[in-house]
């Protein structure tokens, strides 16, 4: 599953539903754009390290920005 920046923010805010969603998916991906957003959003070195450790510990694969990723992101944020 490809996760968006919001899910990581919810986990950092101790949202159990978001944490369970990540936990139940063995194949975990995020786009390089989401990864950069998370790192840029870190307010200090501790938060920066937390993001990097979280991504590593839960074995996320960082996907390059591609046309396919763009389409998936558009589909998840478009009109419902």
- Give the topology string: H per helix, E per strand: EHHEHHEH
Termini separation comes to 20 Å
Specify the biggest β-sheet: 3 strands, parallel
Reading side by side through the largest sheet, how are the strands ordered? 1-2-3
Q: How many domains comprise the coordinates?
A: 1
Commentary on this structure:
64% of the residues lie in helices and 10% in strands. The chain is mostly helical and 80 residues long. It has one domain (2-77). A three-stranded parallel β-sheet has the order 1-2-3. It is globular, with a radius of gyration of 13 Å.
Output the keywords.
mainly alpha, 80 residues, 3 strands, 64% helix
What is this structure's SSE topology?
Elements: E1 2-3, H1 5-12, H2 16-24, E2 29-31, H3 32-41, H4 45-57, E3 61-63, H5 67-77
Parallel strand pairs: 1-2, 2-3
Helix pairs in contact: 1-2, 3-4
In short:
The chain is built from five helices and three strands, in the order βααβααβα.
């Amino acid at each position: 599953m490809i996760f968006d920046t919001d899910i990581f923010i919810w986990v950092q805010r101790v949202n159990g539903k978001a944490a369970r969603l990540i936990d139940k998916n063995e194949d975990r991906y995020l786009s390089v754009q989401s990864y950069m957003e998370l790192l840029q959003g870190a307010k200090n070195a501790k938060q920066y390290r937390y993001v990097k450790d979280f991504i590593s510990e839960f074995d996320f694969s960082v996907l390059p920005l591609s046309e396919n990723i763009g389409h998936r992101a558009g589909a998840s944020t478009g009109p419902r």
